[in-house]
Amino acid sequence: MSLGGFNALPNGVSNAITPWKVNIPQQDLDTLATLVKIAPLAPPTFENSLPGQNRRLGLPRDWLRAAKGYWETEFDWRKHEEHLNTFPHFKASIKDTLGNFDVHFVALFSKRKDAIPILFLHGWPGSFLEFLPLLHILRSKYSAEDLPYHLVVPSLPGYTFSSAPPLDQDFRADDAARIFDTLASVLGFESYMVQGGDVGGRVARIMAAQYPKCKIVHLNTHPMNPPADSDIRSAIDDVEKAALERHNFFLHNGTGYAWEHATRPSTIGFVLSSSPLALLAWIGEKFMDWTDDDPSLDVILESVTLYWLTGCASTSLWSYRQFYGPGADNHGSKKWYINKPFGYSWFPRELNPVPKAWIETTGNLVFFKRHDKGGHFAAMERPEDLCNDVEEFLQKVWHD
Question: Hydrolase: is it a keyword of this entry (predicted)?
Fold first, then answer.
């Protein structure tokens, strides 16, 4: 299959980088099919049977029953796998203070000597899949000869095809940031930009604050506490006020999953690894609740299937205890203040749609774009908007 020349590694790349492709063993697919078929569905209850597919108390039973049936009879992983392999995949062997990590990443490499390296970082329950629509836009717009960027989408440690965190010590976003900065060096990048949302946004902020090779950063999520300055707290318009009301609803009605991840990750890890239907319920709810428009069932099942087949339901929960509970870190932390050029894309259905005035207290915000549509999975939901914002931000601030 032709990859359009986008798989040619840049000059100066370490031999620690090897080409790779997605190829799930058929035995694993057969086992998954059996488990989906025999998985029992909980009986009807008041909570899962609200009229009109109402989700205020959680996932509707009718939705899960229909999704289970579709997963059994119509969903075809091999078709999705074929699409995944139209993008170049690689693995990098990274030597780190915590041990050796195999870091999986998807990339579109340019043949231009002045190409700007960009790392795109996903979150939970996302993966590199989120950024494939954006990569498709750029590979359709440019050839490998004139692509202005090296585009790298790594899988976070513990997610999908990347190594899991070590068994003998804690793993934090700071560690992921260090590993990804090393990845940039292994790829031969003397400087780079980083973009991220959700967990990836937190890792991106740390990279911008702590690593000199990271020259600029762009985010699309920004969980933080209200600033201490009352004037800044009140400097919001009607659109931001409505967004904060939705955010407050999420804090009180939608964060139970995060507290479970943060305080009892071992237990929920066992639960999510015991049944593909349990994993579908846990993740499918988030894909529907956190988006502006419900994604297709194929989009949801592609992500859930990938999580199941790679066994990452339990290994991907490490970030939550750093960001929830007493003394939790957030984007307002002074230790992660961004002195470098900082860009932000604001989407109205984001889980943390904080006002621009608040974001400005956390770094040198030189680019801000507010959109009328889009939610938490911006790269998946609004790839053209995010792509255009990144290109506009780069044109404004990147200097050789």
Answer: yes
